[in-house]
Each structure stands twice: as C-alpha cells, then as structure tokens.
Amino acid sequence: MKKFILGFVIGGIICSALTGFAVEYAVTANPFPVKVDGVSKSIEGYNINDSTYFKLRDAADAVGGFTVDFVNNTITISTQAEPSETANDDDPIIIHEGEVSQRRFAREGDTVIKADGTAVVLKKGVHGILGEEQGVAPDLGLEVPTGGNRRVEAYKVFSGLTDFKDSTGKSVINAHYYVNKLTGEGHWGSEWMAMTSEPTTEGTFEYQLSEDKNWIWLYGSWADMSVQEPTEADLQTIRDANGLN
Prior knowledge:
Layout: E1 3-4, H1 11-18, E2 27-29, E3 34-36, E4 39-41, E5 45-48, E6 51-54, H2 56-63, E7 67-71, E8 74-78, E9 94-96, E10 111-113, E11 119-121, E12 142-143, E13 151-152, E14 177-179, E15 186-188, H3 189-195, E16 215-218, E17 221-224, H4 232-241
Parallel strand pairs: 1-6, 9-10
Antiparallel strand pairs: 2-5, 3-4, 5-6, 7-8, 10-11, 12-13, 14-15, 16-17
C-alpha cells in the first residue's frame, strides 16, 4: 500500500467508482488490519487505487482526539477535549453555536461562537439573566455530564437531574429551554418569565413586535416569541412588518 489517507467515503463516491470510472478506479474493502497504539480496531475501510479511506466518524471513534457531527448541512469536526470528572470548575469555556460541546451550564465570562463566527462573551443583564439581550442561547446543546449525557435542545424536556439551576436559582428539572427564533436568544422558561412579561397594551397591527422583540401581536392577542416555531418565510414577514430589514 503506497499511502494511507483518512477520508470521508459515501455511497455515491463508491457507486461512481464502480460504474462510470470502473476502468480508472479499483474499489475494494480494506484488506489490512488496523491498530491504534498497538491495539487492534474494527473499522470499515475502502481501498481505492492503492489508497485506504475510512469514514471520518469511524476514524474519530477508533483514534479519538476529535469528534465528528453533521449540523445545518455542514460536517463539523471538533478537537475539544472530552469532559472530565473535574469539568465543573471555574475555567471559562468556549461554546460553539449548534454544537454539543459544553461540559457544564454556561457561566458569565464564557464565550459563545455564533454560526456567523461572531464571538460573544456572556454576561448577565439587568434582570440577572445570563446572555440577556446578547442574541445567544448559552445552554442550548448542553451535554449534561449526569444521567447518561442527556442533551438539552430547544422545546424538549430533559429529566433525571437533581442539582442544576438556572440564572434565577430555580431548578431546571423537567424544565423547557426556549429560543426566540427572531433574535437567536435562548433561556430556560423560568428565566424568560423573570426577564419579560406580556405587554399591557394592545397591538396596533398584525405581526407587531413588542419593544424587546419577545412578544408578537397575532390574531388579536400577544404571543410569546420564544415558544413560536416560525419558518424563515414567517421571520421575513415579521421583519418586513416591523421595518427590521
């Protein structure tokens, strides 16, 4: 074997190699054993024109040192260290939006890297809520190091925890985490209740947003934006109605 190549092989590539390019490319299952630090690993591979290819996720599982995921139609590779038994310390962490990489609940001083690459250093707002009016969801995608590494995602209940609290000091056992799709800001339900309340005056036009953009006037009443699931087309309609473009 001339060389070893770590690649990402999908069925379409294999099919192409076997059909339209059958003369040029010879594709076979990897015939060679794989060892990592002297330990044999069972990992499926492919030999194409004397080069060996493995799926990224399989290689990550076998070799370690990085993780592979598929988020928002993007292959994501993370080299962050795995959570350790001492992970709940005071060292700042970096939270990548859309990735499950947090080792604990977010804290003031941690950094959130948004999807567009913008870095936001978390701080508490006027209501003492972390990330208030910063347009981020600090605890979205949290991987809790208790009870089987449950993931916390928007609109989904997570349970089995005993000692986790939100910014207001309330327990988040069986709690919901909500994200305002318009602003990108996310909080636990109890945090939303502490920082915003339904406007006391009626709206004057359909899709009108409250001043803090957390409520929207729909069909004659105010609706909580954090629990809505608008499509991108809906969001554009809201932006247009409020002159946010």
